[in-house]
Amino acid sequence: MKRTKLIAARAEKCLTLEKAAELIGCVANTLSRWEQGVMTPCAYNRARLCTFYGKPAEALGLVEADEVIPVTDLSALPDNIQKILHADLTTRLMTLVCTPHDNQRHLQHVLSQTIEEFTMNTGHDAALTRREALRRLATLPMLLSASGSFQRPAEDILNQYAAGITACEHLSGGKYQDMALAFSLLSAYAPVLKAIVKESSSYRKQAASLLTQCYLLTDVLGFHVESPTVAIAKGYAQLAVTYSQESGDLILRLRALRALTWDYDHIKQPQLALKTIEQAKYLIERSRTPIPPSMRSSIYSTLAAIQAKNGVSATSVLGLAQEAFFTPPADGENLVHVSFSYAKLIGNIGLTQYYRREYQEALDAFAKVIDPNDLSTKVTMPIRTHVGLLNDQTLAALKSPTRDMEQVIASWKAALQGAITLQSQQRFEEACTVYEVMEGVWPGEPRIRELRDLLVHW
Q: Measured at the alpha carbon of residue 211, what is the angle toward residues 208 and 215, in degrees to the nearest 5?
């Protein structure tokens, strides 16, 4: 049914459909659908329409008078109610999902910031609360889909999936159960987002952006939950590249090319890996918009490692990677899609030096994030990253001229135990590879031979 009040409000301003849409901040086709009653604007867009026309929602025919639900300014609530809302992380996250945002990226940024602040400000006793809140947020899209959410505006649906992906991102740094849950949910998100990419002209790019994020995280988790061989065969990283192009988001495209680079490296295709990461470097150099320093560092440090593996000098690009990482981001720069940490930078630097056969320098690099004495982490990082660095550190120690058997065994045992605790297929396979190198370095050594009994898959 046509919304005659909405049409009349535009007529009062003597505006064409195209001009009104431009001033409101939407496309003409979307405004036409709102006026014709084909689509219902979400809460955020209703607020924009009300502000533009200077009329309440019921006066524009957007809701019936008896269906008007007042929106409460949370900051105006009594202190005791605000304390309850802020103390419960689940409530805070769900409230954010229902709050209007400029776009899904902004929503994801605010959600991540809230999760991180809660973790820092409440101490270790909040771990269970945080985990449960994340699991609930991650399942939100599925719950709403089951209750008929597909009848709701596409923008609301995309916000729910953006929130779910953010929750999965945070869950992915935890134990196996959380990684497996995130992996399953991401696989369930994909068909819905694919349908929006295929069928919606207005929301195609936004859905493609979220779908790229889905496949990027699915690629990472697939290495652990399934196996590197299976994850690469299913082409998660390649799908991420495809949808990143559809999204038009350069940062996501760079991340997707980086992921595909490491896939090629894993299957021993160093030349393809080099060609792929060089494409990312080319995109950075040709970009007319500034690329966040940490994203540049991510690409340059990956390029350095792959260059070193291909026997190409990586000194200059490694310097660019370190310089970029420590360059402060621009004011207001949203880094929600960058996904690069100091631990990952050090990991790439250590790998570069390992491939250049600078084994002691590699060990010195790894020592910046992992204590060589007790093997604990010096900086915050996901469990899977810690175990991966332990495997790399052990390889470097094995190749070092001053290799210490005690140190190597201790490091390898810690990595193996971490892989088993995490139930990570990737880390377990890495530990098996490291063990084979140990046997080659110390053939016939009884202490090394006895370690084989520890290689028991869960």
A: 135
